[in-house]
Amino acid sequence: MAIGSPSATKNCMAKLPEETSTTIFNLQRRLLQRIDEATATALIIF
User: Fold this and answer.
1) What is the pTM of this model?
2) What is the mean pLDDT of the chain?
3) Are 15 and 9 a contacting pair, CB within 8 Å?
4) CA distance 10 to 46
5) In which element (H, E) is residue 46 found?
6) Residue 5 has pLDDT above 60, yes or no
7) Residue 28 zone, left/alpha/beta (φ > 0; ψ -120 to 50; rest)
8) How far does the chain reach from its first CA to its final CA, in angstroms?
9) Euclidean distance between CA atoms 34 and 13, whole angstroms
């Protein structure tokens, strides 16, 4: 099984407590929102 494959990710994530997984996904969502906002701002400026 390759590192980064869906199966490897699923197996690793299954070992984490639910609260940790929720926190990771919330932080990922917030990061992606900030990247989207920064991209939109850059398009307006340039």
Assistant:
1) 0.59
2) 82
3) no
4) 40
5) none
6) no
7) alpha
8) 43
9) 24
Task: Provide φ and ψ at 5, rounded to 5°.
Answer: -70, 155
SS (H, E, C) 1-22: CCCCCHHHHHHHHHCCCHHHHH
Residue where the block lists tokens 């939109």: 40
Tell me which of 46 and 18 has the higher pLDDT.
Answer: 18
Give the best-scoring range by mean pLDDT among 9-13, 25-29, 39-43.
25-29
> Which tokens hold the place of 4?
């980064």
Distance CA 34, CA 44 (A): 15
| Structure tokens belonging to residue 24 | 């990771």
Tokens 């996904």, located at residue: 25
